[in-house]
Amino acid sequence: MNLRDLEYLVALSQERHFRKAAEKCFVSQPTLSGQLRKLEEELGVILIERTSRSVLFTPAGDAITAQAKRILAETKELTDIARTFTDPMSGELHIGLIPTVGPYLLPYIIPALKQHFPELQLYLYEAQTHTLLKQLADGELDCLILAQLDNMENFGSLALYHEPMLLAVPHDHAWANRRQVALSELTGEKLLMLEDGHCLRDQALGFCFAAGIGEDQHFKATSLETLRNMVAAGSGLTLMPKLAINPLLTDSGVSYIPVVDPEPSRAISLLHRNHSVRRPCFNEMAKLIKTSVDIVVK
């Protein structure tokens, strides 16, 4: 048994497809399949039920795969420990981001990260919060950049920036030229929202419900860009995080108005496992992200 065999097993558990798992591991399908058969022979148990349509893991396969994930995570931790004593800002770093942050934050920080930390190899993954938290806990990701929520106390956290949400209205709306809008003025309105699973939806709803603002149930968007287009088409109003607003786009059909009393906002943080040895790296990254984004969100 070797670590590569465990990587094949974990890849197959994630992909549930021999060809895709082989591609993920950069080997041929016969190589991956053959090594997993050898692993089964060595362990003396059947790990996988092979059918023409699907890949099913046996109870033994599930249990051994879970342990394999832990072994691979611990092995990576050994490499990370060694790196902290040589060059903490080098090597691979796997970062997870939520969809309402990644596309808008990355253009500001990637050039700066490459310039200041050229030996750092960044791997970026986008998914919803609940998926990213599990991947971080399982050791599949090194850190996350997302909106801070109450259920994240089990992870270490570094504050990055505080991001206000602006009211997005069609250009021909009566409020389009307002300098600001009090949250209480939206009482009775119904706003367009993202679909379930997006933490931004939950945060926006928290502000809305407190102010007596409802949700437009006729449409739920899968992305901020869909919400933006719906507003431009005159289908409603929504709250948009400031980093997602490009001040150079004046012909988008949408006007953005600051909301006050109170100002809807969210805290964006860098999350990591509490005892991660890569904390020095995260500290430096957090400083650079704060500097790169601070002017934009104010």
Description of the structure:
- The protein has 298 residues and is α/β, with parallel strands linked by helices.
- It has 3 domains: 3-81, Arc Repressor Mutant, subunit A (Orthogonal Bundle), CATH 1.10.10; 88-161 and 268-297, Periplasmic binding protein-like II (D-Maltodextrin-Binding Protein, domain 2, 3-Layer(aba) Sandwich), CATH 3.40.190; 162-265, D-Maltodextrin-Binding Protein, domain 2.
- 42% of the residues lie in helices and 25% in strands.
- It has helices spanning 3-15, 18-25, 29-43, 59-84, 102-116, 129-137, 199-210, 224-232, 279-297; strands spanning 48-50, 55-57, 91-97, 120-126, 143-147, 155-170, 181-182, 190-194, 214-221, 238-241, 254-257, 259-260, 265-273.
- Strands 3, 4, 5, 6, 10, 11 and 13 form a 7-stranded mixed sheet that branches. It has a two-stranded antiparallel sheet with strand order 1-2. Strands 7-12 form a two-stranded parallel sheet.
- α2 (18-25) crosses α3 (29-43) and α5 (102-116) crosses α9.
- The longest helix is centred in the N-terminal third of the chain and has 26 residues, at 59-84.
- It is elongated.
- It starts with a helix and ends with a helix.
- Belongs to the LysR transcriptional regulatory family.
- Keywords: Activator, DNA-binding, Transcription, Transcription regulation.
- It comes from Oceanisphaera profunda.
- Residues 1-58 form the HTH lysR-type domain.
- One of its GO terms (cellular component) is protein-DNA complex.
